């Protein structure tokens, strides 16, 4: 009888949840360093608390410092907020002003004052177009939602800045040098939201021209079914994300109090009320997920070649040298592959090409000369139908100084999905 009771107790304990703040599946739990200086880059108000609401609290309680850069004011959030469905730039501007106030309130719940937040006021849903078509000062992006070509929020210190990439890069660089972070958090390049993709690119391009080298981690907000795995172990997350490496994934465990405050902070974003319970509060769980996203410096004293198998029968080769960059896609399969190749080079120039590769047309080449290559961004969308359907999106970012010499390169592969 006693043995049966002991066995019953053991079975009960096996199915009890782990103590709060401990993730039983976490292989590598992230711990912020002493005197950490954490800079969180948020494309929109609420991204900061969703991705790092717990980590920001821990850094502060450990004696560190935190600053949040909001690239946009969230004035284009037409899906989340019914008031933003109404057309009119005045309504959207009021929405952006209100969302900035909510962001300040959300940070105050976590224990931060107004100095922790910096708003740039660039256009919501406009960061990718700015990156692709308005990287330099040739022309400013026009936001059809706010009907403006410049930052119009009067109380922002960069009021009047044109919607061009160089202005946003400079603003980010100023804050990076002033705050001098030891750690930067930015969205992953493969996030489903275009503003989040652009945030990753702008942050890394800004860091390329600076002498500081903080540790870089990225976070996920928008990705199909992410809410079903973001509380799991790095190994399980890596298995969910084809192509991801488990060793690059870190999890941060929140205490019960940190989670409670994070939940309250999320609820401060009242303009997002329709999506709070359905989406936002799913991030108020026992852990936050970080992806190592380091800078890789390359010395281009000689020509370097990069090869990547996009699918078994399609190879991408990129040759980079001080004289320029050449890319070639070689296909050896029997089925037809449809591709969209997008290249953005130095002076805001862009090139987008739609092509079909087959046995009769197996190769496509492109070139980018040095004069166009201060920043080179390549985005490839690939679709193959037939017996083995594949969708792949590949993105890469390179920067080569105009005078030549060392080049900084980042590459990020979005996840392929078959079926």
Description:
α5 (165-179) packs across α6. The strands form three sheets. A seven-stranded mixed sheet has the order 3-2-1-4-5-7-6, with helices on both faces. Strands 8, 12, 13, 15, 16, 17 and 18 form a seven-stranded antiparallel sheet that branches. The chain has a four-stranded antiparallel sheet with strand order 9-10-11-14, with no helix packed on it. β10 (314-321) and β11 form a beta hairpin. The model is unreliable at 1-27 and 410-419 (pLDDT under 50). It has nine helices and 18 strands. 26% of the residues lie in helices and 29% in strands. The radius of gyration is 23 Å and the shape is globular. The chain is of the alpha+beta class.
Topology of this protein?
Blueprint: H1 2-15, E1 37-42, H2 47-61, E2 65-72, H3 89-109, E3 117-122, H4 127-133, H5 165-179, E4 183-187, H6 194-208, E5 215-219, H7 234-240, E6 249-253, H8 256-267, H9 273-276, E7 287-292, E8 296-298, E9 304-311, E10 314-321, E11 324-331, E12 337-344, E13 350-357, E14 363-369, E15 375-384, E16 390-399, E17 407-413, E18 417-418
Parallel strand pairs: 1-2, 1-4, 2-3, 4-5
Antiparallel strand pairs: 5-7, 6-7, 8-17, 9-10, 10-11, 11-14, 12-13, 12-15, 15-16, 16-17, 16-18
Helix pairs in contact: 2-8, 3-8, 5-6
